[in-house]
Design a protein that fits this description.
The protein has helices spanning 49-57, 65-69, 88-97, 121-128, 130-135, 163-167, 199-210, 223-234, 261-273, 303-308, 367-371, 384-394, and strands spanning 7-9, 14-17, 24-27, 35-39, 75-79, 107-111, 137-140, 147-152, 158-162, 170-176, 179-180, 184-185, 237-245, 251-257, 275-276, 283-289, 315-324, 357-361, 379-381, 400-404, 411-412. The chain is of the alpha/beta class. The chain has a 7-stranded mixed β-sheet. Helix 1 packs across helix 3 (88-97). The protein is globular, with a radius of gyration of 21 Å.
């Protein structure tokens, strides 16, 4: 549905900027002759502390966590890393309160890095909270070491997982439910694979996406997700906490319980929160702001997921895609997709854009950084004024501009 109520007409829209470090806002002034509107997602209010506690204590299709913990001598809580916007520190105290029968020294917080880099202490404090970091054993996954071999899934995926996770009596996960081009949505079993997987499992899991199999963006009913859910359940993931954020990165929904059932409940809620109307489409210019995945270059391609969910043409044939991204962490790191790694491919133009122009504004990248992820046809601007001057030359007259302020979250109607 397209309604005029879904967009605010502005000359210089403000977008969120620099997730986690530090979070701020940025004004994006366009030429006065441009017709600029902000297409925001439908959104939802933040949950209260009482709401979070109730979500943990009243799980979906599962025994209460306290009952699952009864008799357990150890527990591991797998959490996603700084490339994900999950306010994990708001969830952990309510989980830990249900584990009071397990000694603190036997509870491990395990950062499910997958193939990403380890986090530094300031990032761990922001993600987990200083009190948690000071009291609990916090371990970061390594895809080459401390692994256990567990055969293969029914689809043939070799199962190599983090030993600390596998050997814990009680296994819990906390992750964000975000649109994903290969597994439909993040969260749920993805905290186990790829989050806690060895490099062979990671390669098998990521290979189809590299070869062009895109899975089901914003649709979790795909083989790739069924595969990781089979592995997660087979290896004992007992309780999954699935976080849906709003446009302020507050927790708008928390769905805990069975690793599949709770995840699907979160997906249903997220699909409404992230839904976005597109009045006036197709546009001359689409501006996709990469927040809350704008911390590093290797994540900002997620802004294009928004474009790919459009059911009707979003951009005119001669239109321009603008991606805006802080990238305060620079290029980023990935043990599979980074330069020289086993699944690295030279970037090429996106077929679904059908030759349309792509320009990227990021003040913390250089040209060599940019070419790691973006095709030669696409251009980097480190100055917003220079990018706007380019747009002004390319688009004559009152060009229409649609700004999507939280593009990696947004699902277009």
């Amino acid at each position: 549905m397209k309604t005029d109520e879904s967009a605010a007409v502005l000359a210089a829209p403000t977008v969120p900027w620099g997730c986690w470090d530090p979070e701020a806002t940025l004004d994006l002034p366009f030429p006065a002759r441009f017709q600029v509107q902000v297409n925001a997602m439908h959104d939802a209010p933040a949950l209260s502390a009482g709401d979070l506690a109730a979500a943990v204590r009243q799980p979906v299709d599962s025994k209460p966590l306290r009952a699952l913990a009864d008799g357990a001598r150890s527990a591991v809580i797998a959490v996603d890393d700084i490339t994900r916007p999950t306010p994990t520190h708001e969830v952990l105290p309510w989980l830990l309160a249900e584990l009071e029968g397990i000694p603190t020294e036997n509870i491990r917080i395990l950062v499910a890095l997958g193939a990403h880099r380890p986090m530094v202490r300031v990032e761990l404090e922001r993600k987990l909270g200083a009190a948690i970091l000071d009291e609990f054993d916090v371990e970061q996954h390594h895809p080459y070491e401390n692994l256990v071999a567990l055969g293969a899934s029914s689809r043939g995926t070799p199962i190599r997982l983090n030993r600390s996770y596998y050997e814990a009596d009680l296994k819990i996960s906390v992750g964000a439910v975000l649109p994903h081009p290969y597994m439909g949505f993040g969260g749920g079993a993805k905290l186990v694979v790829p989050g806690l997987a060895g490099i062979e499992t990671l390669q098998a899991n990521h290979q189809p996406a590299v070869t062009g199999i895109s899975g089901g963006l914003a649709n979790p009913d795909v083989d790739a997700r069924r595969d990781v859910e089979e592995i997660a359940l087979k290896t004992g993931l007992a309780f999954s906490c699935n976080v849906v954020i709003n446009a302020n990165r507050d927790i708008a929904g928390l769905f805990c319980g069975h690793p599949v059932s709770a995840h699907r409940a979160a997906v249903r809620f997220a699909s409404g929160v992230y839904a976005t109307d597109t009045p006036g489409a197709p546009y001359d210019i689409v501006c996709l702001n990469a927040w809350p995945k704008d911390g590093e270059l290797l994540q900002i391609g997620n802004a294009l997921n928004c474009y790919r969910t459009a059911r009707e043409p979003l951009l005119k044939p001669e239109g321009t895609v603008v991606i805006t991204a802080c990238c305060q962490l620079g290029r980023g790191y990935h043990s599979l997709h980074g330069p020289g790694m086993r699944l690295h491919r030279e970037p090429s133009a996106k077929g679904y854009l059908a030759g349309r122009e792509v320009v990227v504004f990021s003040p913390h990248l250089n040209e060599r950084d940019f070419r790691v992820s973006f095709a030669p046809e696409y251009r980097l601007f480190t100055s917003w004024d220079a990018l706007v001057a380019h747009l002004g030359t390319r688009h004559a007259g009152p060009a229409s501009v649609a700004v999507f302020p939280t593009a990696p979250l947004q699902i277009l109607s």
